[in-house]
Write a structure and sequence with these properties.
This protein is α+β, with helices and mostly antiparallel strands. It is about 60% helix and about 15% strand. The longest helix has about 70 residues.
Length: about 300
């Protein structure tokens, strides 16, 4: 049975509540070559950051993940307080520094308040470690929602890849149609060109030697092997997409190999109508490569 094909782009949110405490978690993911996690956790829950990131690693293999965890205390709590003495000291220090290096600069009190420890909750959490079940549950809910969105996007990507590979196969079939007679055509064309160049010269060339050299040139211009390898890569690509799973890196490698074979064909071919088909194939491969960057 085919596995899901997941995109690396998505969003998920989770929430868990117990008595007057509510944990909210938001997870966003974008493309990345490997798995990269950046989490923002309140200072009083910093001890949980490793556990939070570990739960993500258990479910996600690739992508740049941004996680934000917030705690809301409901009912009867006082508004947060500001460490005014420290704030005044920081403001005086920054003002003096601004006046010395950038007199025209503007200081922002709002940004200064983002300094950790300046703003403190009047009702700190009595037992932060007791919130671990809520934290893990909210993280699990957010990651589950993220994976659902990624799976939905992956289904769309699978359809898009099928359409692109169909166009690539059509371009390759047009190339393969002319391959059987291309080597002989090149051999005869090379021979005619050599004879034309030597027509006004008093030079005699052994006919057998001429044919042998022209055959060598024709062999060097032959792209049968490149077409065969390209088709093999395409068949493997199609099979992987159909099977699904976490195949992004393998698909990325295959598109690189397909592009390399197409570039070699472009360098060898000297007939415009065939080169045009190779250019079409390269355009489809490039489209594949763009889409593959989104796959986990």
């Amino acid at each position: 049975m085919p596995q899901q094909l997941c995109s690396m782009t998505g969003f998920g949110a989770g929430r868990r509540k117990a008595e007057a405490i509510q944990i909210r978690v938001e997870v966003r993911s974008v493309n990345h070559r490997y798995l990269k996690i950046a989490s923002r956790v309140p200072d009083e829950l910093a001890w949980s950051q490793h556990r939070v990131e570990q739960r993500i690693r258990e479910r996600v293999e690739r992508g740049s993940i941004s996680l934000t965890l917030t705690v809301e205390l409901e009912g009867g709590h006082e508004p947060p307080s500001i460490d005014e003495a420290r704030l005044e000291q920081l403001w005086a220090t920054l003002t003096a520094f601004r006046d010395r290096v950038a007199p025209e600069g503007v200081l922002s009190l709002t940004e200064l308040l983002q300094v950790p420890g300046l703003v403190k909750a009047e009702n700190p959490i009595a037992d932060p470690t007791g919130l671990l079940p809520l934290i893990e549950g909210a993280v699990d809910d957010a990651v589950e929602a993220l994976r659902e969105m990624q799976a939905a996007e992956g289904a769309h990507l699978r359809e898009e890849l099928a359409q692109i590979t169909s166009g690539l196969r059509a371009a390759m079939e047009a190339i393969e149609e002319v391959l059987p007679g291309l080597a002989v055509e090149n051999r005869d064309r090379f021979r005619a060109r050599v004879q034309e160049l030597l027509r006004d010269l008093d030079v005699e060339i052994d006919s057998g030697e001429l044919w042998r050299e022209c055959a060598i040139l024709a062999e060097k211009a032959d792209v049968t092997e490149e077409v065969g390898r390209l088709r093999g890569h395409l068949d493997q690509f199609t099979k992987l997409v159909q099977e699904g799973g976490r195949i992004g890196r393998r698909l990325d490698f295959l598109t690189q190999e397909m592009f390399r074979e197409a570039n070699t064909m472009t360098a060898k071919l000297n007939r415009y109508e065939i080169s045009e088909r190779v250019v079409e194939a390269k355009a489809e491969i490039d489209r594949l490569r763009e889409q593959v960057q989104n796959i986990e």
